[in-house]
Amino acid sequence: MDFTEEQIERYSRHIILPEVGGRGQAKLLKSKVFVLGAGGLGSPSLLYLAAAGVGTIGIADGDCVDMSNLQRQVIHNTDTVGKPKVHSAAATINKLNPDVNVVPFHGRLTVDNIREIIRDYDVVLDGSDNFPTRFLMNDAAFFENKPLVSGSMFRFDGQVSIFHPAKGYPCYRCLYPEPPPKGLVPSCQEAGVLGALAGVIGVLQAVETVKQVLGIGESLAGHLMIFDALKMTFRKVKVRKDPECALCGENPTITELKQYEEQACEFKAATCES
Amino acid sequence: MKIRVNGIEREIEAGTTVESLLNMLEIKVQGIAVDINREIVPKRLFSETILNEGDSIEIVRMVGGG
User: Fold this and answer.
1) Integer Cα distance of A205 and A64 in angstroms
2) Does ipTM come in above 0.85?
3) Rounded distance, CA A208 to CA B49, Å?
4) Which residue from B39, B44, B65 is facing A153, i.e. has the nearest CB?
């Protein structure tokens, strides 16, 4: 791949890293990453993936930018309040790096569309804000053999991992077999979250995604990274692929996508300018 | 014997399993994962996993926000 002069300058701090180099940067420019959710986690992930020159970035989100998002969703701004998040995010990315081809999907991912939507991507990143979507994404990533860079957060706590059963690593269900019953674990932002925590977790997802594309270093697959912002501790625990996992185990009982019921507070008014 | 649960030392009887520890602490198995000495124990093994002296147990809450 031939770089333009502008590209050589733009990516110079990558290219001079022996672990990246021109070849690595060319890989990034050819890579395709799908980001589910342009919210708290998606915002910082998307910014760094775009800055890194990931050539194609798919973004799916059915929401519109709300004023209350701006405390942490740093890819959006005051002027894009009311606009679909995917379009707001795409506009920011286009300004940051014209090398990136953004593929926005303003809508909900469902059992009927998710597999086809993620099929063309090399890596998928989950920054969704509810359990039904997390399980749907995990199952779809499994059926499509995609590495899933998963991040989640709540209040002051965050978790990051890569799920990749096709390479012998666990899936999300090896760790958490089923979504929690309704009401037991609040999953919506209404319960509050430290804004900068989204940056910590989302950027860790971007780091793991870039490493995954480049094939460098030790992946977080097979581990769960647990961050506690109040104690300022990172704890890395081992997660094994469960041979009896209902999805990726030896005798799976989940053989197709299933849609879990949404929690009440996840329903949002669908009023949105387009 | 002594173990640590989320960093706090506790005295338990020999033969205590992950499941009986959670019952003792009145923690529901839904919505959590448990790691012993930094390795996640699959949920289906909670009732047969016996804790040992000095084990460090962490109860990890599932978080879903994004």
Assistant:
1) 23
2) yes
3) 32
4) B65
What pLDDT digit, counting tens, does each position of A109-158 carry? Answer: 999 999 999 999 999 999 999 999 999 999 999 999 999 999 999 999 99
Helix (H) or strand (E) run with residue A208 in it: helix A195-214
CATH code, A125: 3.40.50.720
Q: What one-letter code names the amino acid at B48?
A: E
In this structure, which topology does domain B2-61 adopt according to CATH? Ubiquitin-like (UB roll) (3.10.20)
Q: Does A127 touch chain B (CB under 8 A)?
A: yes
pLDDT in tens, A54-84: 999 999 999 999 999 999 999 999 999 999 9
Q: Is B61 on the interface with A (CB under 8 A)?
A: yes
Could you tell me the residue ranges of all domains in chain B?
Answer: 2-61
Decide if A235 and B58 are in contact by the 8 Å CB cutoff: yes
Measured over all CA atoms, what is the biggest interatomic distance in chain A, rounded to whole angstroms? 55
Cα separation, A59 vs A33, in Å, equals 9
Q: Do B30 and A181 touch (CB under 8 A)?
A: yes
Are the Cβ atoms of B63 and A126 closer than 8 angstroms? Answer: no
CB contact under 8 A, A40 and B62: no
- Please indicate if any CB of chain B lies within 8 Å of the CB of A44: no
Report how far residue A264's alpha carbon sits from residue A129's, in angstroms, rounded to the nearest whole number: 13
Q: Is pTM, for the whole model, over 0.90?
A: yes
Q: Which of A154, A195, A205 is nearest to A52 (CA)?
A: A205
Does residue A177 lie in a domain region? yes
Mutation pick from A41, A133, A154 vs chain B, by most beta carbons of B within 10 Å, is A154
Residue indicated by tokens 């940051």: A96
